Design the sequence.
């Protein structure tokens, strides 16, 4: 069945149609988690699924499942997918490509009259990005039991809207959609995604065989000082939270960000209070994103980060709250081999690659054999409106996904993983 291919033109057209759900004037996408725009993307996905007899469902965490029914409906299904939500000024491919590619694989199998032994399911995980509700990957974490659903539902966005209210609104928009139990057994999981980095393009390779995902820690830091009059309070008497931040940030960039060439250190969100021109700032709140492929180094840098905040805060005080602690993980060796073999058989260049960005596959890997397929993105750009993937690469990644899933769909063809 090496000659079986997806319809690349249909997949591209569907990606462009989904890009209209939250389209921005600059050609990007603003389709944040549990928003009206994401609900619109669900409607589009459900229309396509139901038109060819696929079975949609959801769960208490707002994950969307679209199943090609198998012979044994009670057996653990095989999942493939990613996420539909985007950053506020995101692109047309991040996340949504993996969902659309998985759906295209299922539609291709329906057109060939395939009934697999077990369900094959395209999945869109809720709130991978974490741009509206932080931290992200809420759907896959709830599914995997990493985070409690009650704590997820209690999270609020910048406008004070809770996940509970937004999630209830999502479910209310689809009252007839069948509910699955949260966290059912899974036989395998494969996620296709744009690389979000420059390596594949630089090496001239079409397919990335993802070996694993580098570790990530995130922190909220609150620096508390004291408000004062900018014109009357002597410099020596000030407890200026912004001044303390400048010392802390300088130390963190030097010692944590400068630790080695593999570390990724980012201060990605900053809030100053009262943020008035003639008032000494009394509070600075910041979000830190720290990543490294070596878990021992990541842990040491996380501890050093906390110590540096305390060391450089005086006369203010700094409170560091860990948010995400996701160690580096590897992917299933047999599935990695299947991806490389599929790319080789259908004529696409490939290379092993480590994911620098986090993905929902991180949380499926402890549950079942899991893997990821990368395709290039222009200039390595992602989380930006000019994010782009070439149509030929979009098709290539989905064709590889199809070939990797075929042994689960048609085992009688004699193919093995």
Sequence:
């Amino acid at each position: 069945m090496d000659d079986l291919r997806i319809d690349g033109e249909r997949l591209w057209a569907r990606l462009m149609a989904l890009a209209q759900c939250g389209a921005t004037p600059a050609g990007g996408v603003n389709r944040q988690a549990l928003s009206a725009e994401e609900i619109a993307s669900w409607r589009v996905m459900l229309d396509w699924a139901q038109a060819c007899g696929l079975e949609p469902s959801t769960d208490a965490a707002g994950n969307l499942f679209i199943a090609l029914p198998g012979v044994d409906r009670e057996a653990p299904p095989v999942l493939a997918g990613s996420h539909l939500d985007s950053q506020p000024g995101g692109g047309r491919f991040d996340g949504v490509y993996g969902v659309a590619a998985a759906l295209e694989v299922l539609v291709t199998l329906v057109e060939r009259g395939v009934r697999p032994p077990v369900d094959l399911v395209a999945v869109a995980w809720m709130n991978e990005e974490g741009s509206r509700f932080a931290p992200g990957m809420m759907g896959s974490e709830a599914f995997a039991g990493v985070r409690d659903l009650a704590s997820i539902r209690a999270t609020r966005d910048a406008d004070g809207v809770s996940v509970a209210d937004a999630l209830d609104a999502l479910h209310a928009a689809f009252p007839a959609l069948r509910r699955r139990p949260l966290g059912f057994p899974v036989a395998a999981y494969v996620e296709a995604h744009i690389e979000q980095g420059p390596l594949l393009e630089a090496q001239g390779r079409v397919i990335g065989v993802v070996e694993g995902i580098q570790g990530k820690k995130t922190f909220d830091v609150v620096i508390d000082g004291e408000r004062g009059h900018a014109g009357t309070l002597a410099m020596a008497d000030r407890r200026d939270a912004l001044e303390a931040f400048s010392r802390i940030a300088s130390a963190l960039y030097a010692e944590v960000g400068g630790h080695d060439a593999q570390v990724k250190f980012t201060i990605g969100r900053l809030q100053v209070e009262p943020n008035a021109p003639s008032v000494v700032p009394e509070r600075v709140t910041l979000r830190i994103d720290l990543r490294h492929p070596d878990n021992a180094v990541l842990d040491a840098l996380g501890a050093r980060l906390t110590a540096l905040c305390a060391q450089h805060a005086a006369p203010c005080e700094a409170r560091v709250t860990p948010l995400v602690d996701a160690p580096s993980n590897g992917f299933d060796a047999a599935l990695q081999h299947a991806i490389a073999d599929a790319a080789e058989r259908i004529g696409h260049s490939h290379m092993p690659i480590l994911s620098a960005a986090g993905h929902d596959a991180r949380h499926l890997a402890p549950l079942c054999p899991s893997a990821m397929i990368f395709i290039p993105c222009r200039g390595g750009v992602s989380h930006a409106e000019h994010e782009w993937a070439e149509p030929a690469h979009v098709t290539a990644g989905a064709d590889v996904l199809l070939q990797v899933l075929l042994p689960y769909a048609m085992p009688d063809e004699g193919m093995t993983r």
Summary: The radius of gyration is 23 Å. The chain has two domains: 8-212+328-413, 215-326. The first helix runs from residue 8 to 18. The domain at 215-326 is CATH 3.30.70.360 (Alpha-Beta Plaits).
